[in-house]
Amino acid sequence: MHCYDPDGTLIGRLRVPEPVSNVAFGGPRNNRLFLTATTSLYSLVMSVTGAPRL
Is 25 a member of any domain? Predict the structure, then answer.
């Protein structure tokens, strides 16, 4: 999975062993990244927080 800045600059990649279908931030501090894939759900604790929830 590729990660881009808002201006389109590639800032990193996450290696996942299967195709990713969706991503979302969550958790009490909104710093956990959830990834849904073909047959699995992955969760990563990040050093950054996601966008505020509406």
Answer: yes
CB-neighbour burial class of residue 52 (10 A; exposed 0-12, middle 13-18, buried 19+): exposed
Which pLDDT tens digit goes with each residue over 40-50?
Answer: 999 999 988 88
Give the tens place of pLDDT for each residue, 4-47: 989 999 999 989 999 999 999 999 999 999 999 999 999 999 98
Residue 52 falls within a domain, yes or no?
no
Per-residue b or e along 11-27, where b marks 16 or more CB atoms closer than 10 Å to that residue's CB: eeeeeeeeeeeeeebee
- Residue 53 CB partners (closer than 8 Å, separation 6+): 30
